[in-house]
## 1
Amino acid sequence: MTSSPRPDARPKLEGTAVYGVDLEAPGMLWGALVPSPVAHGRLRSVDLAPARALEGVVAVGAAELAHLLPGSTGDPDRPVFPTSTLVYRSQPVAAVAAPTRELARQAAHAVRVDVEPLPVVSDLEEVFPEWPGSSSEGSPHVAAHVRAREGDVEAVFRTAGTVVREIYRTSSVHQVAVEPHACLAEVTEGRWRVRTSTQTPFGVRDDVATLLGVPEESVVVEGTWVGGGFGGKGAALLEPYALLLAKASGRPVKLSLGYREEFLLGRTTLPSVVRMETAVTGGRIVGRRVRLLLDVGTSLPGRDFATGFSIGFLLGPYRTPVFEVEGYAVRTNKPPFGPHRAPFAPQCAFVLESHLDHVAREAGLDPLAFRAAHLWKEGDTTPLGQRVGPFGLSSAFEKARATAARWRAEAGPDTGVGVAVGFWSTGTGAGGEARLRLSPTGLAVVQGEREIGSGSVLAGVASVAARATGLPREWVEVTYEDTSRAPFDSGVFGSRTTGVLGRAVEEAARSLLEELGHRLGGSGPVRLAVESGEVVVERGSVRRSVRELLSDAERTAGGLVANGRHYGKSGTIDERKVEAGTFYPYTDFTGAAHVAEVRVDRATGTVRVTRFGAFHDVGAVIDAATAVAQVEGGVVMGLGTALTEEALWSDDGRLLNPSLLDYRIPTIGEVPPIEVTFLEGFPGAGPFGAKGLGEPPMIPVAAAVALGVRDATGAHVTELPLSSERVARALKLL
Amino acid sequence: MTEAPGSLRVNGRTVPLENVPTSERLLDTLRWRLGLKGTKEGCRSGDCGACTVLVDGVSMLSCLTLTHEAEGSSLTTIEGISDDPLGRAVQAAFERAGALQCGYCTPGFVVALVGLLRERGTSASVEELLSDLGGNLCRCTGYVAIARAVELVRTEAP
């Protein structure tokens, strides 16, 4: 496939693109955070005096907030600085700024934090060694509880031909964007201004306003180039501290994390324990019971979406007539759970696919045929009563099966092939707006998102604008504006950007073309084209240059402006099935089937993935080159989750491997050839029927690798990642 | 603690060094004294490769190199990599292969590959080149397009 060059290639290849880490301002100070020395404790005092004794150091803690933010209470549920209890190690208890980075670090060390340690809760299974019962409802360890059911679960399990019960465990994984979090804050004339590396400029604006308790319109967020996000840069993290330091010092303040801090403060996927029970009679699933304990660390109020959302991925995408699902979000003394590319879905797919494969084997059935027979198709109903929309997963699965059969026929010794599916909902309800400005020399898309690397803004949104108007993409320029000037958009997350912001662009294009049609006179749709180096409006054989159709005022203002907005609808679920908590409906049905060929070293348990096939229902491909690149990158990130990535927590809540040496992500030598195939014709909620593609490539990978290991060796591994140690244990080598 | 004024030779230009502490890392000198921020700061511990520069033509991690160690050497950063045809060929191959996404690791990869090709020549096998790029981490591309760029540059480099 040929790649059209990315518009951002040159600045990135020449080193001129400015990221958060690169920000600088005249007279700026460097900030540093003072971390909690314990994972749980009662804060006796924070003494900033030793830091302030260093020349040029400014320090702020809880005691300074009243003076810095007069009249503000901030958000009582999420205080910027804790005043009584510390709940995770590295939790910021104060912040300092100094003329040099080194001095800021020294000043942070100099702050005396006096703490009375309290018992640390680190391990989920220590909190709930037994499945929590109704007595745990009021437990301080339960951040959220969800339960739903349909049918007489007990009866079908009692009478089923085969019942399989298993327990799975998954690891804590980190986003590992190569660029650490960084921002530069300035406070002038009552404006809280921050430039930052973020996936959600408007989200950061709202967070800052809430956390500091200042009016939203007084906060201005300007995004920089983002050196990788993957969910980790989707909410305010450093910005409130940098702004408080800027306010206190009257100087611009830069706050930039070292990589160790990046691991320690990172809000990401935490461990889980899942119990799966399935009842089969006559080759059909007659009942399912799913129970999830998800570690949510120091849960953030309002951000415990994971349990109610993810639990659906432990049931579907399979037809399940009778079921009971129950999930607990469990508080531990770790940093808050946060989104990491398809939050917790790769772990769910690993558990579900491994389990159903095992169930089929136990019932004496062909595992692939068993799963194929239950896969959702359009018109099916999800367990929670939502109608399944256009969905190509079953077709993707058939293609994956055919590839797997071919690879198996060619497989050498100790080599196996795994096939797994994953599903996801993209184009979430979170809305967005965009502005188009048409001039004789081209079309500008004015919007509020920075490109985070996936291409969803600079290639995706630009391609939508081109396709919606008829202009070649080279004539479309995506321009970025800060939150005080750009139309609102929810952020680059949830595989939504090309889909939702794209729909807003499509809407704006419609209104632009309509207006141009009026001006051209006559009736019928018009398109844009290029003639003699200028943009023209055409209807059939009638053509007029845009120059002639603009008023003087429009020419002076830079062009004809049209606005578009899209606030999509999610489906609905049948609330009668919900007994506790919040479950979430899907917006569209996006799926992928993956095939992994793996070779297992029978002496060491080391797994190597030797080739990979990815079949994706994308609705419609918007930009071929970036679409393929998304799948390649997502698959390899998934290989990390599958094989090596595991943040290890000690009993006292310490992260044991906060470095890229000890937390191993895939390197260039470990990447197999990856074949990418797109299935079109199952339209989603995005422009031209597109579905999102940022997250789905990550989802089935670990499951496909695990099933490949099982195919190669018979080893049934029920924990992630499939480290050589775990595989060796399953092979009884240890 | 500072040393007597010295100088660095960076991208063909001699720049004076004044009041540079002996403990200062080359990465910080390049970025914050010389404003050459194309050299990226990732882990600062030698694990990610984002800060790779050429020191007398050999790729080195500027986060693990003290500035004073580099005195008297000739440095090339991403800002100077296009001064020679091999650098331009590597950049062009990355662009054609779509071998970048967020772009944060990109300068490190480009510089490291130029260094490798200088050291080993374009006759080095792709496997050998990829194996030697193992110290550069990328989280976006899955390396697939980067490997394509390596293949391209091997066949097209001057």
## 2
Amino acid sequence: MDIKIAHQPSYAMAVCNLEEGESIKAESGAMLSMSSNVDIATSSGGVFKGLKKALLGGESFFTNVFTAKDAPGEVCLAPTMPGDIVNIPMDGELIIQGTSFLASDTEIDLDTKYKGFKGLFSGEGMFMLKASGRGNILVNCFGAIHPVEVDGEYIVDTGHVVAFESTLDYKVKSVGGIMATLFSGEGLISRFSGKGKLWIQSRNPDAYGKLLGSHLPPRE
Amino acid sequence: MKHEIIQKPDFAMLKISLEQDESVSAESGAMLGKDSNVDIKTSVKGGLLKGFKRKLLNDESLFINTFTATNKPGELLLAPSTPGDIEHLELNGNTVFLQSGSYLASGNGVETDTKWGGAKAFFGGEQIFMIKCQGQGDLWFSTYGAVHTVDVEGSYIVDTGAIVAFEDTLDFRVKSVGGLKSLLFSGEGLVCEFSGVGKLYLQTRLPAGFVQWVNPFRPQKKSNN
């Protein structure tokens, strides 16, 4: 499989060229275009569970598997939000912020029930995925992507976390004391420790959504 | 008429240098600057009836502005409302279908006409309205995000929301992807299958997708009791 990231950095799109019989797994809704010989199959952790999630407005996590049939084929994938895409070659475990997952090799296993962030992320409307295996994984970010090589300790606003290697240990906590928690505007932070790679996004989707939402008429 | 697309690719802007008495048409609301000798005339393009048809069917602005440089040459700056790029096509007797919201501007020799996407493009929640552009001269359109050009040879599948423009040498039909489960849960909705040989222009982000993303952030309406 040959993956090219086109139109970087603000409105990036992944052009995935599949050999005959090759497949790629992608977030539902990510397909912009594809060759007509590419087949699509939808999977989830159980249809009814998925349906419930979709109906309740939660993060539904359906993935589609695209397979090139009878000939090579291409699939173009893009996220909803403006921003970049990065191709991470992985061998081991990677923890990904749920909405940052774009696509991966089918050999990579995705654990959607991963509760690693100790429930604290639920307040931010976030869920995390644990990806394990060997292959390529495509993650998208809101704004620019900024990789950090952590060696020791590093602190990130949780809304900016995109992905990190599981060799890193982390704790989610509020920043500073009560004053800082309430008024600093920094919300929750993640304290990473150990040695490993961390990817952060230069804008916080939740903060942007809240800004826009406050200018919009209420929902029924 | 000379033109230059500046500030590409994320917030592109179209700079047109008009000769004296030369004119260009643009989507209403697209003008962001001009020399003072450039006159603006608002018209209902193609006559009132055609204009209303366009308004009703396309949800596109009823009015088109025509800019003319009077007494001497003049400059005009145009931009679309969304972030993204602008693409230029030179029509030479050929025909291009343009998704109505992507029209930015066109030269005098280009005729823009509403065309039904056809009944085949009409079912389902997503409606694709295309403007038929034909004639001689310049045509500019905008994309939400980047513009991605595909040379179709054979057949190719596109999410309907990503279609910006295509040459009329391509045939198309709207269909759903995969089986029933994919239709319900794939999130891919309806797709357009193009066939033949011709150029296809896509945008790398979907305005409707972004709106869906923003929607849950709207405040909840307070109940009366």
## 3
Amino acid sequence: MKRNVAIAVLLFWLSTGALPSRLWAQAIKATPEIFKQFSEHVVKIEVVETGSAAKASVGTGFFASARGDIVTNYHVVSKLIHSADRYRVEVTEPSGQSSPAKVLGVDVVYDLAVLRTDRHPKGFLTLETKPVEQGTRLYSLGHPRDLGLTIVEGTYNGLLRHTLYPKVHFTGSLNPGMSGGPTLTHAGTVIGVNVATEGEQISFLVPAERALALLEKTARVENRPGNGFLAEVGEQIQANQARYLSGMFSSKTPSISFGPYTLPTKPTDFFHCWADAVRRKELPYVAVTHDCSTDDYIFVSSEQSSGIVRFYHQLLSTAELYPPQFFNLYSAQVQAGNTAVFGNEEEVTPFRCQTRNVQTQTGKVKAVLCARQYVKLPGLYDAVFRVATLGATNVGLVSTLNLSGVSFENIEALSRRYMESIKWRR
Amino acid sequence: MAPLGYVEILDAKGNVTERVRIDSFPVQVGRAYGNHVVVNDPYVCPVHLAIESDESGRLFARDLESVNGLRGGVDGDRVSVLELHSGAPFRIGRTLLRFCSVDQTLAPTLIDRQTQASWLASSYAAPIAGLIILLLLCLDSFLGSVERVTVAKVVSEPLMTLSMLLGWAGLWALASRIVVSRFHFAEHVAIACSAIFGFLVLSTLSEWLEFFFPVIPALWMAGFLGSGVILAALVYGHLGRASAMRRRSRLWAALLVSGAAIGLSLIIDFANRSKFSNVMEYTGIVKPIDAAWLPSTSVNQFMENTEKLKKELDLLAQKARSTQP
């Protein structure tokens, strides 16, 4: 009986010929409709320099709770976090209504911030933590280069593999200014928060669950002084580095053979390693390089990023050069790259170094440890640890470990394990 | 007939400017040309003074009622008669005089060290020193090159250095010609070569020391002082050929020049240090020797030492935080 009814209904729908088109219309809205329906929840966020009343940076955000919480990127409001007395945040709704906002919480590792204004929103966008299928059509909203609210179509391509922090791979063009904006499904649920792009349609989103977690944390926060966030930023980076660096370069780290040397490589999945060699005929020596690095830096301020771990081995060998000649080359290699690319007086102290000839398990090395401390984030350091093997006359290895935004305990622990993981045959 | 002695006219420093032979007494001294001793001093009277001897052979100076009188010693009181002792000065007007008898005791003969430093003056010194320096510089240039090189490339830079050295020696030779009327070019070349040799030795030595003992910060100071000593020696040597200065004043001049040079570079160094920079300062020098010879610390010691590094950074950060709003 039931079956008959079902068949009858089906036949009815088929006979009217409306089934496919009606279903389609219900399931997938056209982009203009999506824009019309959801864009009112998306706001422009401006950080304004109080002295000149001119905007210092522009980004996007969206209402994400009935309380009026606005989700955006940490990097959109980072200037305010660093100098609360020099900047304020202004939120502009699509209606043109502007109102001042305050920061309630930040997640510097995932590049998120939650703001709130005094206005009650007409509605808000819900965040979706359930995964969608690869290839699902997504719509990203934002203010690219402050050109006005824009909608960008793209597709969902899953979570990035081999990254330290999960990120959604969104195939669509995000542009500066869209940062902090939502990327939605056709139903209007937010899959992720716009955060970065690598050009050519390769863009990244912060997964919605990170934004939900931050919203939960800030749910009971009503008001916070603007200058209290730096300490929290420091603590978040501190906790994060303690988590992902623990055990790195332990004895289980895979190794590669590099001439007579056995060297650490790819300690975890989120490292990417590359190798290259210089074997030019006109040069009387050969230089081989093996370079491993994490991709996931943490944006701290426009002057400073942090959280990158990089290490590289440079093997020099010669069959032609006399030992004093070879060692001139080798000395220059040990000295090379002794200047950090980033860093200014407000953010970091100058470097201080310690150099010693050290006896390791397999032989003697020249070991150099240089470090500097973050001025605004006490207890966090950048460090360069370099080891040059000694004793041979026609072959030498310079191996360097770069750490940024780590505790001094981790500098010591990682340097020690790194030095011990470098071995060679004599 | 042997003279009885000499009347000497002295300049303000006590150097003899004129010497008048005395064969008999009395001797008349004054500005007038009829005197035995003619003194060119407007404060001296035409006939100012007479020098007489008594029966026992003692000598006296007698003021001949002059305007400005006679004074014993350099600035003694005015007297009308003064007993003269050989070698003791007295004054008329603004002129110092003294009488020296023929048996006046003399200072011992000075040894001439300028002609004694004979290896510099020998005609081989400069070419040999130049050749040695050229060879050393070529060796340095060859060992310093890490690409395949031609002879021309190895030699060109040392030749440039050598020609600059010749130019330097030439300038000093010119100064010598002006001041002491002789060029001494070869000697200036040899002196400059010695200094370059000194710098080569110093830099090699400090590299090896830095490699062996990377921990000692005094090495940096020693390098500075070493350069200072070489510079002082260079100036001292050049001045010896280019002036008639005495050893002591040459030494002072040399120390002054090298002190000034060191002071200046210390100031520049300090100014650079107090500027903020992203450079990691360490020496990357490594040398090809058997590792067994190399003093070293254990991994544990290295790690324990990093506490000092941390303290230093904490202090720096504290300082930076206190200067920021």
